[in-house]
């Protein structure tokens, strides 16, 4: 579904992604792990066009998306749940959601609409007139996920959804990700929370210094103390 091949991305002269290659198969969830600053967010931003790749190719559903604008890439069916949620603080919950609404094709009714997002996250319905900045961290995360779903994506990119959340809320986020997977969405998840990532992923990738240095199943990683220690500091 998503293919990343030999991607190199820079910030000015700083060569951050140094030949990143991996796939996200349709209907699967892939977790991208690694220490701080190795290039995980830059990978997400290269896919979504926010920090375009300088070399290499990114294909989605068989079409090249490298070189397209973030808006064009979103319209191909890639939803982004950004690091830090990026909820609009001075818009209501409802406005945060409806401003993202987009149907997949002009003729077909959208899979995700306000009602369906409210069914998934009833607390957002209860608080729909509240401003974005009046939500707890967990509720803001639900809003960020709901906003991405309103674009009717086929693939969702999630950048550290557990960041700054209490452990009970982190397990709720894990349940939400499981639910999204069940609904047929493909997921690329960047996480610092090793156990959350291993609990929801079909495949785990480890990044170090701008390259993928290990890949395997969550079980293979859980059984491999050396890799955990070397690349994740566990
Ligand atoms: N806007 C920017 N300008 C310059 N350098 C940047 C910028 N954003 C990130 N970097 C640098 O690029 C490298 C990779 O950063 P990136 O945010 O992709 O890492 P990460 O693996 O997501 O880390 P974290 O877990 O801390 O978010 C780091 O050295 C970082 O300092």
TrEMBL record:
It comes from the Bacteria. Keywords: Amino-acid transport, ATP-binding, Nucleotide-binding, Transport. GO terms for molecular function: ATP binding; ATP hydrolysis activity; branched-chain amino acid transmembrane transporter activity. One of its GO terms (biological process) is L-amino acid transport. It holds the Pfam family ABC_tran. Residues 2-234 form the ABC transporter domain. CDD domains: ABC_TM1139_LivF_branched. SUPFAM superfamilies: P-loop containing nucleoside triphosphate hydrolases. Belongs to the ABC transporter superfamily. This is ATP-binding cassette domain-containing protein.
């Amino acid at each position: 579904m998503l293919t990343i091949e030999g991607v190199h991305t820079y910030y000015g002269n700083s060569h951050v992604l140094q030949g990143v290659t991996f796939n996200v198969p349709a209907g699967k969830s892939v977790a991208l792990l690694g220490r701080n600053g190795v290039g995980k967010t830059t990978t997400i931003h290269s896919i979504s066009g926010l920090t375009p790749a300088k070399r290499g190719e990114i294909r989605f559903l068989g079409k090249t998306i490298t070189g397209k604008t973030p808006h064009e890439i979103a319209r191909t069916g890639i939803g982004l749940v950004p690091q830090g949620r990026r909820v609009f603080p001075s818009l209501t919950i409802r406005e945060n959601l409806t401003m993202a609404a987009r149907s997949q094709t002009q003729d077909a009714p959208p899979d995700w609409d306000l009602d369906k997002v409210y069914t998934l996250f009833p607390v957002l319905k209860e608080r729909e007139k509240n401003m974005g900045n009046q939500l707890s961290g967990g509720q803001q995360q639900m809003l960020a996920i709901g906003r991405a779903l309103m674009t009717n994506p086929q693939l969702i990119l999630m950048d550290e959804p557990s960041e700054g959340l209490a452990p009970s809320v982190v397990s709720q986020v894990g349940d939400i990700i499981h639910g999204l997977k069940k609904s047929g969405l493909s997921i690329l998840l960047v996480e610092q929370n090793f156990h959350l990532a291993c609990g929801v992923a079909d495949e785990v990738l480890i990044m170090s210094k701008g390259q993928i240095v290990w890949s395997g199943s969550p079980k293979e990683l859980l059984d491999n103390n050396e890799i955990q220690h070397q690349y994740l500091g566990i």
